[in-house]
């Protein structure tokens, strides 16, 4: 399949469309893992074609545990995507990361329990290296692009993904802080790990919407609080993506290209045909 877009945006809560796209096309794709959350839209932005996918579907139809993360990433790979920007709402576990701020995190803790975490299995054993789950070069470029909007932007911090769909208890929020976590959300895992398995560079633009429930003076997080903050920040996210598209052309190298070359443990001669066929669009060059 020909490359449709090198850069993709996965929009989280409050972001179900990408303003500013021109020459819009819609791509309805099927994958071995089912349908993506929504048809993928692509259009020109900042001098290149950019793909957009609403993580929860237009109208917010899927809760975080119901999102088909594997189908979403697989479909983006089929479109030739090399870089993904995840736009995610999150709670802050630090005093200095205030509601309305943007954070580009550099670490991830997966505290989910119910989600499919890998594309591979069925006779194909693969162990991805994810010591640094967010692509460093892409994250740095995203930090620069977000800072140019004039927003208050922070670089670094550990993002913990909880199962949801409920918010944390005060006890849980306090434990996460003791663990050294900076942000809490519900969708970054397994999305980041699947992107790595697909050799797609992945970075997060995290919108701080609240102080979760640990803060002594701030109100505990509610859906209304999250949406109100996101509505104020949507324009910043879209401008940041436009800035990034202008600064990082489609021809720029993919820093995660080839990252799975040494992750395959199964002897090639013993990989079942069905598993090989399913994995081919993701890591086919390493299965030859």
Determine the number of helices (DSSP H or I, runs of at least 4 residues). 6
CATH superfamily: Nucleoside phosphorylase domain
Largest sheet properties: 11 strands, mixed
The CATH class, by name, is: Alpha Beta
Helix content: 25-40%
Number of domains: 1
**Quick check: average pLDDT?**
94
| C-alpha Rg (nearest Å) | 18 Å
Secondary-structure arrangement, i.e. CATH architecture: 3-Layer(aba) Sandwich
CATH topology name: Rossmann fold
Instruction: Spell out the helices and strands N to C.
Output: EEEEHEEEHEEHEHEHH
Coarse shape:
globular
Content of β-strand = 15-25%
Provide the low-confidence segments as ranges: none
Q: What is the distance, rounded to the nearest whole angstrom, between the alpha carbons of the first and last residues?
A: 19 Å
Count of beta strands? 11
**Computed structural class:** alpha/beta
What can you tell me about this protein's structure?
This protein has 288 residues and is an alpha/beta fold. It has one domain: Nucleoside phosphorylase domain (Rossmann fold). The chain has helices at residues 69-78, 136-147, 170-178, 188-197, 223-247, 273-283; strands at 7-11, 22-27, 40-45, 48-54, 83-92, 102-104, 107-111, 153-155, 158-162, 183-185, 201-210. Strands 1, 2, 3, 4, 5, 6, 7, 8, 9, 10 and 11 form an 11-stranded mixed beta sheet that branches.
Short summary of the structure?
This protein is of the alpha/beta class and 288 residues long. Helix content is 27%, strand content 22%.
């Amino acid at each position: 399949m020909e490359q449709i877009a090198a850069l993709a945006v996965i929009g989280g809560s409050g972001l179900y469309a990408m303003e500013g796209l021109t020459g819009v096309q819609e791509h309805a794709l099927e994958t071995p893992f089912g349908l993506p959350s929504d048809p993928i839209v692509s259009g020109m932005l900042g001098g290149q074609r950019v793909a957009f996918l609403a993580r929860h579907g237009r109208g917010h139809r899927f809760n975080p545990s119901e999102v088909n993360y594997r189908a979403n990433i697989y479909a983006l790979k089929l479109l030739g995507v090399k870089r993904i920007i995840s736009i995610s709402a999150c709670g802050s576990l630090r005093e200095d990361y205030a509601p309305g701020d943007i954070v580009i995190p550099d670490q991830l803790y997966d505290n989910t329990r119910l989600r499919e975490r890998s594309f591979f299995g069925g006779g194909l054993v693969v162990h991805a290296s994810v010591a640094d789950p967010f692509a460093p070069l892409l994250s740095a470029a995203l930090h620069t692009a977000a800072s140019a909007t004039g927003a208050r932007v922070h670089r670094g911090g550990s993002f913990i993904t909880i199962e949801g769909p409920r918010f944390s208890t005060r006890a849980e929020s306090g434990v996460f802080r003791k663990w050294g976590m900076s942000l809490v959300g519900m969708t970054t895992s397994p999305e980041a790990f699947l992107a790595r398995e697909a050799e797609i560079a992945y970075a997060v633009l995290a919108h701080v919407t609240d102080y979760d429930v640990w803060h002594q003076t701030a109100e505990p997080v509610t859906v209304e609080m999250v949406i109100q903050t996101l509505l104020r920040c949507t324009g910043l996210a879209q401008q940041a993506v436009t800035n990034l598209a202008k600064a990082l052309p489609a021809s720029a190298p993919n820093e995660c290209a080839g990252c799975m070359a040494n992750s395959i443990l199964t002897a090639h001669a013993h990989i079942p045909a069905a598993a090989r066929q399913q994995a081919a669009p993701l890591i086919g060059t390493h299965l030859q």
